[in-house]
Design brief:
28% of the residues lie in helices and 23% in strands. By secondary structure, the protein is of the alpha/beta class. The two termini are 25 Å apart. This is Glycine/D-amino acid oxidase-like deaminating enzyme.
Length: 338
């Protein structure tokens, strides 16, 4: 392996990999064809939330490990570069649909079996939160594991940490076609299958920084530390334009109904981007088949921000130590004819 490692892509996977290699003492140069966070990592939401704990599998375990380690990982990033990534473990609250109590009880049992004890779920009739969604059943499911991060601040914090540790970031220039870690988002999925999925989100001006995030009827509502609340997002397959439209307005309206505290908060920013969804629906991490010295870190889709620390650590272990901790389902496989 060359003394300098090239990373292609300035989204969350590329930045996390570059940081992990830099903090382990390797010289890194990251190329971003546009600017840091120009793609799917430049949105608003930043929900670091676990998958439902039922039907446990390797992907859920990797995500859980990353969520548990996130507090220390992001604290180190912020300290290294002097930029706050906007991370906080504030928990999550979800309304329970009428008749779903038995299913929620099973979910709570599964969380006890797989999550750390401190992170467990519970049902409550009296949620202690500034931002409480409407619940037709009068019950809410809460957890203490879920965290939030500001995607744009996270990208800026990682870039600052990389540079502070001697790494180089080149914006406005694509990476050369040479051995590298390829973390190029939806555009980089073509050899492996998968597709880009459009998402739209909005940012409201409302200071609820310490409130837990809300997940209700498919909508994420995330209070951030800077006096804003993020709302998202749409899931639009086979749509590649980056314009916001009436689908986002419907999400905003729905969020205001679900959380009446948002009713009068003004919208201060709207965003649309293309998220990379791998064919397997799991992240792609590992060597690029048939291209010695080339590696892939892609397919974060909706969980890229949550998974990035674990993905970066597993790839660094493989590249630097020859230690393979990557679940078999994550290894990149070329699509037929790819």
């Amino acid at each position: 392996m060359a003394s300098e490692i090239t990373v292609a892509g300035g989204g969350i996977f590329g930045l996390a990999c570059a940081w992990e290699l830099t903090r382990r003492g390797r010289k890194v140069r990251l190329f971003e064809a546009d600017r840091i966070g120009a793609g799917a990592s430049g949105g608003h939401v930043g929900a670091l939330a676990p998958h439902a704990p039922e039907n446990w599998n390797d992907k859920k375990q990797v995500q859980l490990d990353a969520l548990v380690a996130a507090t220390d990982w992001w604290a180190e990033v912020g300290a290294a570069g002097g930029v706050d990534p906007g991370y906080a473990r504030t928990g999550r609250i979800q309304p329970v649909a009428p008749g779903a109590e038995a299913r929620m009880a099973e979910r709570i049992r599964a969380a006890r079996a797989h999550w750390p004890q401190w992170a467990g779920m519970e049902l409550t009739e009296r949620p202690q939160a500034a931002l409480v969604p409407v619940s037709p059943s009068g019950l809410w499911l809460v957890d203490r594991l879920t965290a939030r991060i500001s995607p744009r601040r996270a990208g800026a914090a990682l870039a600052a940490a990389i540079r502070a540790q001697g790494g180089e970031i080149v914006e406005g220039q694509a990476a050369p076609d040479a051995p590298a870690i390829w973390a190029t988002g939806a555009a980089g999925l073509a050899p492996f299958g998968g597709n880009g999925v459009k998402g739209q989100s909005a940012l409201l001006a409302l200071d609820m920084a310490d409130a837990p995030q809300v997940f209700a009827d498919g909508i994420h509502v995330i209070p951030h530390a800077d006096g804003t609340v993020a709302i998202g997002s749409t899931t639009e397959r086979d749509v590649l334009d980056r314009r916001t439209d009436e689908q986002l307005e419907a999400v905003i309206d729905k969020a205001r109904v679900l959380c009446p505290a948002l009713a009068d908060a003004p919208v201060i920013d709207r965003w649309a981007g293309i998220r990379p969804r791998a064919r397997s629906r799991a992240p792609l991490v590992g060597p690029w088949p048939g291209r010695p010295g080339h590696y892939v870190a892609n397919g974060g889709f909706k969980i890229g921000l949550a998974m990035a620390p674990a993905i970066a650590a597993m790839l660094a272990d493989l590249m630097l130590e020859g230690r393979d901790r990557i679940p078999p389902g994550f290894w990149p496989k070329l699509r037929a004819g790819g």
